[in-house]
Design a protein that fits this description.
This protein is mostly helical and 220 residues long. The protein has helices spanning 2-34, 39-55, 60-73, 80-101, 106-122, 124-145, 150-162, 171-189, 204-214.
């Protein structure tokens, strides 16, 4: 009986350790991915995130960050078919995260908007009618759940930034969204979430970049 109790305690300790072990490796890999501009390095780190998601398959955030990485890989990819392939992977991982959560949260809605915007960007003229409403709808759903999520405003700003001025976009139109996000990133940095990889807090670096770009005057 004592042997069985000891074995049971050891098994529980192993499970607890395994549940916690993913955080350091996930954080190290994701931060490295999110702070490099080198595409081959990003691909390598995204593949590592894939291994992490497979090893800790029951953690929603491992799938979430893998999905994020697949969307980010499209930004420097020229081939439309490869972009769609990355977005297919992102969508699958996003759905896995939602399945584990048993519902969407504000972060998965923002991720869904990113995927939709990526799809639209592959072929804007032929895809805006389908993916434009999905992008807007997911961000509205995120706002309903958490109006203080800075990543929601970051994504709105990016969309406006790359929309032609003739269609209501451009730097001037995008700037208020990045400024709103900036204030919310500062607020988020003062919370425990800023030190917890299981509570997404990426985006400050990207927002700073676009804020700077919006303040640079275009040469006519």
């Amino acid at each position: 009986m004592k042997k069985m109790i000891l074995m049971g305690a050891m098994a529980l300790a192993t499970i607890s350790t395994q549940a916690q072990d993913f955080k350091p490796v996930l954080e190290k890999t994701f931060v490295a991915f999110d702070t490099t501009w080198d595409q081959p390095t990003k691909v390598e780190l995204s593949n590592k995130l894939s291994l992490i998601a497979k090893k800790w398959d029951n953690e929603w955030v491992t799938h979430y960050y893998l999905a994020y990485s697949k969307v980010a890989l499209t930004y420097n990819e020229k081939d439309a078919a490869k972009k769609d392939a990355y977005l297919d992977e992102a969508d699958k991982e996003k759905q896995d995260a939602v399945s584990i959560l048993k519902k969407d949260n504000d972060e998965t809605y923002v991720l869904g908007a990113m995927i939709a915007n990526g799809r639209l960007g592959v072929d804007p003229m032929n895809r805006w009618q389908k993916y434009g409403p999905i992008f807007s709808g997911d961000l509205e759903s995120a706002k309903d759940l958490n109006p203080d999520n800075p990543r929601m405003y970051l994504e709105q700003g990016i969309s406006k930034f790359f929309t032609p001025k003739a269609f209501g976009g451009g730097k001037k139109a995008a700037l208020p969204y990045f400024e709103k996000a900036d204030a919310l990133f500062a607020k988020e940095a003062a919370t425990p979430a800023a030190n917890d990889i299981t509570k997404p807090h990426w985006g400050k670096m990207q927002n700073d970049y676009f804020l700077k770009q919006c303040k640079i005057e275009d040469k006519e």
